[in-house]
Amino acid sequence: MDSPDDSYDEIMAQAGNDGKFQRRYNLIFNFGAICFASMSYMSIILALNKPPHNCHVPGMDRYNITDANLWKNLTLPRETDNRGQLGFSKCQMYNVTEQHLQRHYSEWSFGSDDIIDCAYGYDYDRTYYDRTPITEYDWVCDKGFRETNIFIYNRLGELVGTVIFGHLGDTLGRRPVFYLSILIITVGRLISMFTAAYYVVFCIAAAIGSMSAQSILQSPLIIAMEISKSELRGRISMVQCFGWTTGLCILAMVFWATKDWFWSLMIITVPIALFMFIPRYTIESPRWLATQGNYREAMVQLRRIASINGIRELAFDEQMLEKQLANHRSDTVIVCSVTYLTLVLLSSRMDGNPFLNFMYQALIEVPAALVAQRASDRVGRRATNAVALVCAAAVCFILVLIVRDPASEMAATALVTFVKFCIGITFFVVNLRSIEIYPTCLRQTGLSVGTIAATIFGIVGPYVVHLGTEYDVRYPYLVMGFTSAVGAMAALFLPETLHQSLPNTIEETQQFGKHQRFWSLPKPPKATAEQEDGTDKRPYGGDAKPEESMRLAVSVDDDEKAQPTDDGRK
To answer: Using CB atoms within 10 A of its CB, is residue 494 exposed (0-12), middle (13-18) or buried (19+)?
Structure first.
């Protein structure tokens, strides 16, 4: 007897599970929409980039000094930075009084008792930024924690939003949650642009803008996987990875071109709202509708898919769909997050061009996705994930040993990029496997539960970066090394999902992976004897004639004449 999942796959195959609709849907929503979503979500990182700075000490023009380093030597004390190197203090100055300025600077003599905190504001390196909230409102030194706190609020907003939208995705549907996600991220970022002068309001706006960060990724990805054949799951996830990476590269270029955080946010935020106005391809998942018992609306969505795929007739109607899928209904669903966010934040604090550093870190996700897709479809999700995390952990521990050595700067940069490559692989596999392992009725909720755990731990990411920036650059790599090692061990105990059907009910999920061997690689399922001899007699599969399987041909054109209401009634 066919499983419910097989029945749905057969129905979906008749409507077309690898046709024009799927390709266009992925291009529009899993590439285009995700491209702009990644820009809006990650824009806060570049907007809050902290350029090099030091105390502003007035009087330089009085002596007609044009060499900034000479003036720094005269007015700024020296201190050891986070790499153990001696440099000018960022937050302290010598107490240069009017009495000093009345004498030639060659007569000045300062000691440790003359050191004070910055009294006249700050000078910022304007090479890459003309304006950021940090340079406008001096969020440095005694206010330096404001930047870190904003990133924390960003993650807290993501945590709350993941809880809310994850549940709504399985109760209201994937489509309304996708619309709401676009609205939330747009409104949140727009509010942020006009409230930087009001720190508390800015933090709240940053949190609001991040509430839908996960649901805006999950909703189109889940829909695409639920309307496509199982062999395409890895490819669909890779398309979304390409969209994400493309968005991050464009984001860096926009900031580099404008050098202004306000106009950069305006340019990248507004266009995402356009994806709310593509009704022809903004569908609800027929699979989810079937689990809710809304077979009429499920038929509407199946016919829309079939029509765009060039299939004029479907060999089943609403009653037959309900009979076949009745048992689909249900009465009811960490590590990568820490390491990924930490690496992204660190990239904007590395020496050199912050935009190129950010873009390089983004570009490495392209080969990571390609390798992840190929490896996860060859050796399985579990092995790919575990090996990538082991490699990331090993390299992080190597970085702890060399990152403070100026002579090893190039090697350290290359190793950091490799860690990002490994974490890119794990993110690809984790997202793919999370979607595959949860039942249809709770797929978005279940995916959100995993994201919630990751986000809770990911909240420490900005603090880890703060420790590395202000105290010792080795701390972030030490933390990432340990978390990656723990993640590798945890990954080995999750079930393999390659070549497995998506579970539709909680009961199927409870049985999922129980009979898998631990030390084994997944093998593709063998064709049944009926499939091999061409006499497949499944209700909606093989070459059985319509009258033999009691199927009713329903014209797509007839359905298009009947416009359904919101509750699925005609």
So the answer is: middle
Strands (E) located in 176-327: 313-314
CA distance 171 to 564: 20
Secondary element (H or E) of residue 489: helix 475-491
Count of CB atoms within 10 A of residue 111's CB?
8
Contact 309, 21 (CB under 8 A): yes
Name beta bridge partners: 115. 94
Could you report the per-residue pLDDT of 288-314, keeping only the tens digit for each?
888 788 888 888 888 888 889 888 776
Q: Where in the chain is the domain with CATH 1.20.1250.20?
A: 17-51+130-279, 330-513
Spatial CA neighbour of 189 closest among 308, 40, 2: 40
What's the CATH superfamily of 330-513?
Answer: MFS general substrate transporter like domains (1.20.1250.20)
8 Å CB contact between 142 and 116? no
Q: Which phi and psi (to 5°) does residue 115 adopt?
A: -85, 130
The rounded radius of gyration (Å) of the Cα atoms in the chain is 28
Kindly report the number of other CB atoms within 10 A of residue 127's CB atom.
11
DSSP helix/strand/coil, 78: strand
Amino acid at residue number 540: Y
Say which DSSP state 519 is in: S
The whole-angstrom separation of Cα 452 and Cα 463 is 18
Tens of pLDDT, residues 328-355 = 444 322 555 556 666 666 665 666 678 8
**What is the Cα–Cα distance from 274 to 297, expressed in whole angstroms?**
25
pLDDT band at 569 (very low <50, low <70, confident <90, very high): very low
- Amino acid type, 167: H
Residues 6+ apart with CB under 8 A from 51: 124, 125, 126, 127, 128, 129, 132, 134, 135
What dotted CATH number matches 17-51+130-279?
1.20.1250.20
Q: Tell me if residue 117 falls in helix, strand or coil.
A: strand
**Which residue from 373, 377, 381 is spatially nearest to 496, judged by alpha carbons?**
381
What is the helix (H) or strand (E) element at residue 471, kind and residue range? none
Count CA within 13 A, CB hemisphere, residue 150.
29
184, 162 contact by CB (below 8 A): no
Q: Where would I find the H helices in 3-103? A: 4-15, 20-25, 34-47, 68-75, 98-101
Q: What is the pTM of this model?
A: 0.73
Q: How far is CA 197 from CA 48, 141, 193, 302, in A?
A: 14, 18, 10, 50
143/155 Cα distance (integer angstroms): 20
Percentages of the chain per state (helix, strand, coil), in multiples of 5: 65, 5, 30
First-residue to last-residue Cα distance in the chain: 34
